[in-house]
Design goal:
alpha/beta, 233 residues, 7 strands
Amino acid sequence: MTIYRTKIPNMLFSFLIIILLSFFSCKPIMEKPSLTHTWSVFYTEGDEQDNYAMYTYVLVGNRLSDQSLQQRYSTLLDAIFGTTLSIHQISESIPIDEQNIFYFPINEGGIPDKNNYNFELSKNILNKLSRAIEEEQSRFANNPGPFLVTSVEKLSDKDPNSEFCIIFTDFSDKNPAVIHHITARYQIKVSKNNNTSCIEQFEDFFAKIILNPAANANDYIKLVHAEAKELIY
């Protein structure tokens, strides 16, 4: 029993600086974007409205019955809703060709929650990306996501045999604690890239090297502490 009592403080001390970095740094660093961000939903390919500057699709590769994917998706939903207005709320004085729109595939209604998400439509778009982009074929075919995929064109208009120019980020291996930070940085990246000319995966260096490992370490410490507490008491 005493072994666990000594191990826990040692582990906490070892990860103290990392955890503090995680706690203070996971808040997104905001900069003024050159595009206004908004969000909406669509029900079938082709439903998307024309003439937006950028189209960002919120996609998942597995059904949201998976608990870890569900948590990441819900956190991403909160991150987007916390920084954008829906197309029904945004000012009409902002031209749509100065907006990036986040599109959620859903089945019915207007809220893209886990119970209303259209997995089949999402998978269709990911399969199109998988066929069109050879170097990312495995990722879009197999990873659970969620993904943010941004293009200057509506993806529903794209033929899989044509050239795809996208920016994307993959949250499959990301801790939910860093999703708000990455989403904010992604919005800045997208707003500064009106003329997408390549296949580019967005990776936030600070999140990848510091925040995500710190969040995972914090989760591990909580797990060990809970198991040790059961053994001790």
